[in-house]
Design a protein that fits this description.
The structure is a single chain. This protein is mainly beta. It has a single domain, classed as Porin, CATH 2.40.160.10. Helices cover about 10% and strands about 45% of the residues. The protein is built from four helices and 16 strands. The chain has a 16-stranded antiparallel β-barrel with strand order 1-2-3-4-5-6-7-8-9-10-11-12-13-14-15-16. Strand 6 and strand 7 form a beta hairpin. The longest helix has 22 residues.
Length: about 450
């Protein structure tokens, strides 16, 4: 009944909106659509040192990367309906040539904006990302603790190193509404029927397995994200932005389909592993004043997507599950100063989580120097020092799963990438030299 009422309400709202638009058509002044092309790309040289080397792909070394490269096509028009209305279609294409497992299309959505707010339909970020403010927005370079260091850093088993929420919908297909900003306050909500649904992919079970993770992660249905933020500029030059965001959703295990044996036979241990519902929140903000900028964020994922009963995860003999899983919480701080074309930013990130009875944590210190060489073009130097701690029980869980998956793939010749080798800790540093271009 709840699903029926929610679907009926969404359909009714869409029908009412379309009816109102049609009745206004004859009297509207419509501008011809225009096309705008924009994009960005980062070229990075990473010099890194992982304390953990045995059985991993990283260790000590260096790497050239082309990162965060995207091309955006924005087609838009303006109409004098209900005041002034702007309609925009965005198609975002990723320049990442290394991801053969998914589409190169990143964003694909329609946006309708007017005096009454903004509607977004399609593959776009939800309000849990669009409306969030925090230390991650202050860091320069590739993002410091929230940047590209993890392309060359081996993250130990169960360590949480993200600044977004567990259960964030990212670019899943969704509907979003954001209110106009009144007295500095803005509200927003996003509804995602399934976080595994993207574009024209078939909806329903078995879900269309478009997760970028390999092995495939749990996913949510009837997912709701909410956000509120406040932005105000004072006469003395201080600009303040504050935000609170949260997500909830009914979580499904990755193999919730009768077609499991045809897809991921090596992960059947998940069949009996029930998951906690997604429920997470974050609060954060930034302050700017005369070239100085400060940011902070706190987030708590609770038990989002974790095993309800760890012993239920044992689907095969030898899977070492002792219990105790927590999705993690984190806080971060950052400060920056801009003087002419130069910008210096520093930041700190800390997280705590629990994996198979072991407490895990992360400590990351970041320093970034940026210089704008010409409009749209800049160079940067970024340094990250990290300490990532897990435990023997967490590593044992991952290794048991890896061994079970290897045996099954050997028997059937079927299955996706093997799970990562269990790691109980890692520390080291990453020095990145790079340049960025944006137009």
């Amino acid at each position: 009944m709840k699903k029926f009422l929610l679907s009926s309400a969404m359909f009714g709202a869409a029908l009412s909106l379309s009816t109102c638009l049609v009745t206004q058509a004859n009297a509207a002044t419509v501008k011809k659509p225009t096309l705008k092309i924009s994009g960005e790309a980062t070229a990075s040289y990473h010099i890194f040192d992982n304390n953990v080397r045995e059985g991993t792909e990283k260790g000590l070394g260096s790497s050239f990367n082309i990162e965060d490269s995207s091309l955006y096509f924005d087609a838009g028009t303006r109409m004098d309906w209900f005041g002034t209305m702007f309609i925009n279609w965005r198609l975002g294409i990723s320049g990442d040539t290394g991801r053969d497992d998914r589409s190169q299309i990143e964003e694909n959505f329609l946006k309708v904006k007017g005096e009454w707010g903004t509607f977004i339909f399609g593959n776009s970020q939800g309000v849990e990302s669009l409306m969030a403010r925090g230390a991650f927005g202050v860091m320069g370079g590739t993002g410091g603790f929230d940047g590209n260091m993890f392309t060359v850093v081996e993250v130990p088993t169960g360590v949480f190193v993200r600044t977004d929420l567990v259960g964030s919908t990212r670019l899943s297909t969704k509907a979003t509404y954001v209110t106009p900003r009144l007295w500095g306050v803005q509200l927003g909500v996003s509804y995602t029927p399934s976080t595994e649904q993207r574009g024209e992919g078939r909806f329903g079970m078995p879900h269309n397995r478009t997760s970028i993770a390999d092995p495939v992660e749990p996913f949510d249905v009837n997912h709701l994200a909410g956000g509120i933020n406040y932005a105000y500029g004072f006469e003395n030059g201080i600009n303040v932005q504050l935000s609170a965001t949260g997500v909830i959703g009914k979580t499904h295990r990755p193999d919730n389909t009768v077609g499991l044996d045809n897809f991921d036979d090596n992960f059947t241990f998940f069949k009996s592993a029930r998951r906690d519902r997604t429920a997470a929140y974050a609060i954060g903000g930034t302050i700017e004043f005369r070239g100085f900028e400060f940011g902070a964020e706190w987030l708590d994922n609770g038990d989002s997507r974790q095993f309800k009963k760890p012993q239920d995860a044992v689907g095969e003999p030898g899977l070492d599950v002792l219990g105790g899983f927590d999705a993690g919480s984190a806080y971060s701080f950052a400060a920056a100063y801009t003087y002419g074309p130069d910008r210096l930013s520093i930041g700190y990130y800390h997280s705590d989580a629990k994996f198979n009875g072991d407490s895990t944590d992360a400590d990351i210190y970041s320093v970034v120097y940026d210089r704008e060489v010409a409009p749209g073009f800049g160079v940067f130097t970024e340094y990250n020092n990290f300490g990532l701690k897990s435990g023997d029980n967490a590593a044992a869980f991952a290794n048991s799963l890896r061994g079970d998956a290897r045996d099954k793939r050997s028997e059937t010749g079927n299955g996706s990438t093997l799970p990562k080798k269990g790691i109980n800790g890692n520390n080291g540093h990453v020095l990145t030299l790079g340049m960025k271009f944006k137009f």
